[in-house]
């Protein structure tokens, strides 16, 4: 067996750049990877994720490049932004001038002194995932930097925190970055976080996020994947919710020729509540794969999951979502829904919602609906003077609008609406709500 | 304004219209009555251009143009309006934005100025009070969760905004209580001018007490079998539709 996955051109990380507390974890991931080949489409979980292009790629060492972040600046987060370019922290483009005292928003490599606080995060969640997902393991074995967010006890953070990960290709060669994101909300804290991936040309992003929301804390997390259409994007998320914690997470995917998102959320105490939404907007030959796992381990937790897919051209979207309700998780209230909108005859959505319930006193529901634009609604709009193309755009936009409406930053909401409208070839629909 | 000659149409294998002849002139109000399944709604949808119906024969001219050469949206911008029997719910599209979009598309086609959101807000407030609708309905998604009556009010609000030359109202009365029917009937009547026309499709003569028709047509099994004045509507109220089958239609075109 070839050890293809340990492509020697992937960035090797200098030992001093790694937080010492993470060494055992890193060593374990390295061992897990050793001798492992790339996942194959013969494996059920990777059935639709064809990695042949990626396997043939040669990666140039990713260097810090000059990029223009102007259009990506969110006014609300002007002074609470970290920027990474090709995996390197970019201090000049970052701006942390507007942070409340005590909040930590910094790059990991400069935070090795905090390793003991991070120890908690290396719980069973991320590691279990790392074992199952070679891309998560690759990140754990090789990550050189990333973002660290620690919101202290009881702090209500006003400005949204913006993490921006940008990639470029290097000459004619692809690059690779392995960003790591750690987020901790201590007891009773609350914050809004935007995590965004963008780039140009051919590259691989292999990201891992770990989120811990402690007792009574609240995190609103928007993850945006707007990678270049030649990029490969892999993103694992492991979140743990403690007692009465609340975590609202929405993932919006527009980019990449191939992307895979694997969120895994564990209810690790009573009364936690989760919203885990997704929106994928795909065209051409894009493939977007979402494998989610919501683990109800404790009583009286609530989860709501709505995953929406708009697929045009020859695009393929996969949704495989598991809600796992353990025996002790009485009083669980879980709902999962996948909705697909097909805009062309060739586009495909494969939806596999799954409930596994081992408790007897629970309220759980799931469903999947995949279809085309409603011809009656199209005719209704046309009968009011809207051209067919405009009517289609309006209905397509409407399909995505509730998810976009839930984004708490007005500037980001506007930006993403524009993106959706541009992707649906809309006429000027700026006036829409 | 509208001239229908020997029109036949089908949906799937079902021939619904089997030779309709009808002329509507500017300034006229026509009522189209008939039992369930007689083809009343089909005629409305065919005139508006519903893609599920196939025109199998005959011709229709609107202002001298072949209506079937126009796409549904072109017909709308040319002044044809179909008030739906069952208005469609469109989640995610706000009523106000939709109304403004529809207004501006028509204004653009007619070379008039489009309205920005503030101007449109002034414009719509007057219309919405005319149909006695609460302005909170403007912020809601188009027809989503509206009651049957609220949907009909919203149809007439759209009619007020678009000011069509030829309005076809398909069972405006279904889902409306008597008071609401009178209010909307008066609004519709108030929109009539000498260069506009109305085709009111209904089962029941009550709506015709407010929207007084010049001509009443009775449709049965895809054909117009009687044409008369208001007295025909009243006769139908008294006798129902069954007698029409027993008595042969008088000779001559409707």
Mean pLDDT of chain A: 87
Radius of gyration of chain A, in angstroms, nearest whole number: 21 Å
CATH architecture verdict of chain B: 3-Layer(aba) Sandwich
Q: What class do helices, strands and sheet pairing of chain A give?
A: alpha/beta
β-strand percent of chain B reads 25-35%
User: What is the CATH top level name of chain B?
Assistant: Alpha Beta
The unreliable regions of chain A are 122-127, 426-433
What order do the strands of the largest sheet of chain A run in, or round the barrel if closed?
Answer: 2-1-5-8-10-12-14-16-18-20
If you average the pLDDT of chain B, what whole number results? 91
The helix fraction of chain A, in percent, is 10-25%
* Cα end-to-end separation of chain B: 17 Å
Q: How many distinct folded domains of chain A?
A: 2
What does this structure look like?
The complex is a heterodimer of chains A (433) and B (254). With 433 residues, chain A is of the alpha/beta class. Chain A folds into two domains: 4-269, no CATH class; 374-433, no CATH class. Chain A is built from eight helices and 20 strands. In chain A, the strands form two sheets. A ten-stranded mixed β-sheet of chain A has the order 2-1-5-8-10-12-14-16-18-20, covered by helices on one side. In chain A, strands 3, 4, 6, 7, 9, 11, 13, 15, 17 and 19 form a ten-stranded mixed β-sheet that branches. The radius of gyration of chain A is 21 Å and the shape is globular. Chain B has 254 residues and is of the alpha/beta class. Chain B is built from nine helices and twelve strands. In chain B, helix 5 (148-162) packs parallel to helix 6 (178-190). The longest helix of chain B is centred in the middle third of the chain and has 15 residues, at 95-109. Chain B is globular, with a radius of gyration of 18 Å.
């Amino acid at each position: 067996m070839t050890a293809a996955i340990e492509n020697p051109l992937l960035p090797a990380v200098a030992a001093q750049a790694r937080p010492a507390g993470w060494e055992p974890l890193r060593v374990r991931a390295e061992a897990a990877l050793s001798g492992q080949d790339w996942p194959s489409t013969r494996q059920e979980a990777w059935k639709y994720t064809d990695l042949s292009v990626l396997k043939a790629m040669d990666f140039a060492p990713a260097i810090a490049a000059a990029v223009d972040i102007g259009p990506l600046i969110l006014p609300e987060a002007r002074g609470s932004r970290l920027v990474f370019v090709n995996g390197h922290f970019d201090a000049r483009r970052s701006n942390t001038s507007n942070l409340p005292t005590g909040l930590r928003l910094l790059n990991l490599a400069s935070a090795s002194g905090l390793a003991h606080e991070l120890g908690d995060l290396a719980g069973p969640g991320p590691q279990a995932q790392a074992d199952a997902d070679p891309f998560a393991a690759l990140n754990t074995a090789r990550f050189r930097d990333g973002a660290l967010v620690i919101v202290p006890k009881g702090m209500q953070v006003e400005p949204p925190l913006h993490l921006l990960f940008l990639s470029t290709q290097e000459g004619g060669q692809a690059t690779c970055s392995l960003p790591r994101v750690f987020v901790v909300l201590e007891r009773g804290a609350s914050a809004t976080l935007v995590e965004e991936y963008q780039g140009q040309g051919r590259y691989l992003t292999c990201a891992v996020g770990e989120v811990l929301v402690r007792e009574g804390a609240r995190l609103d997390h928007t993850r945006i994947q707007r990678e270049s259409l030649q990029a490969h994007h892999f993103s694992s998320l492991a979140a743990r919710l403690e007692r009465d914690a609340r975590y609202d997470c929405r993932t919006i995917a527009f980019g990449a020729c191939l992307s895979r998102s694997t969120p895994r959320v564990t209810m690790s105490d009573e009364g936690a509540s989760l919203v885990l939404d997704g929106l994928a907007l795909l065209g051409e030959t894009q493939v977007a794969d979402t494998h989610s796992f919501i683990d109800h381990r404790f009583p009286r937790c609530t989860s709501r999951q709505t995953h929406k897919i708009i697929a045009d051209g020859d695009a393929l979207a996969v949704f495989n979502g598991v809600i796992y309700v353990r025996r002790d998780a009485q009083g669980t209230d879980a709902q999962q829904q996948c909705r697909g909108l097909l805009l062309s005859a060739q586009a495909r959505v494969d939806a596999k919602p799954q409930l596994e319930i081992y408790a007897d006193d629970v309220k759980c529901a799931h469903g999947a609906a995949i279809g085309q634009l409603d011809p009656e609604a199209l005719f209704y709009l046309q009968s009011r003077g809207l051209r067919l193309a405009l009517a289609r755009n309006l209905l397509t936009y409407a399909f995505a609008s509730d998810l976009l409406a839930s984004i708490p930053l007005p500037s980001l909401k506007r930006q993403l609406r524009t993106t959706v409208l541009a992707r649906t070839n809309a006429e000027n629909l700026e006036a829409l709500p | 304004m509208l001239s229908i000659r020997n029109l036949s149409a089908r949906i799937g294998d079902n021939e619904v219209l089997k030779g309709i002849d009808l002329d509507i002139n500017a300034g006229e109000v026509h009522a189209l009555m008939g039992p369930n399944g007689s083809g009343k709604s089909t005629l409305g949808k065919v005139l508006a251009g519903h893609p599920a119906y196939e025109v199998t024969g005959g011709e229709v001219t609107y202002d001298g143009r072949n209506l079937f050469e126009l796409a549904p949206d072109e017909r709308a911008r040319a002044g044809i309006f179909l008030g739906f029997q069952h208005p469609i719910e469109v989640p995610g599209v706000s009523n106000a934005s939709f109304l403004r979009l529809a207004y501006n598309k028509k204004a653009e086609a007619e070379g008039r100025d489009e309205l920005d959101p503030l101007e449109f807000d002034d414009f719509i407030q007057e219309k919405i009070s005319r149909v006695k609708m609460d302005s909170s309905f403007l912020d809601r998604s188009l027809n989503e969760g509206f009651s049957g009556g609220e949907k009909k009010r919203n149809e007439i609000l759209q009619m007020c905004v678009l000011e069509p030359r030829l309005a076809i109202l398909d069972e405006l009365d279904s889902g409306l209580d008597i008071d609401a029917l009178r209010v909307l009937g008066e609004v519709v009547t108030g929109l009539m001018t000498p260069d506009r026309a109305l085709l009111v499709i209904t089962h029941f003569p009550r709506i015709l007490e407010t929207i007084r028709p010049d001509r009443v047509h009775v449709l049965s099994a895809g054909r117009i079998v009687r044409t008369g004045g208001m007295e025909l509507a009243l006769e139908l109220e008294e006798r129902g539709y069954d007698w029409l089958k027993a008595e042969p239609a008088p000779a001559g075109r409707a």
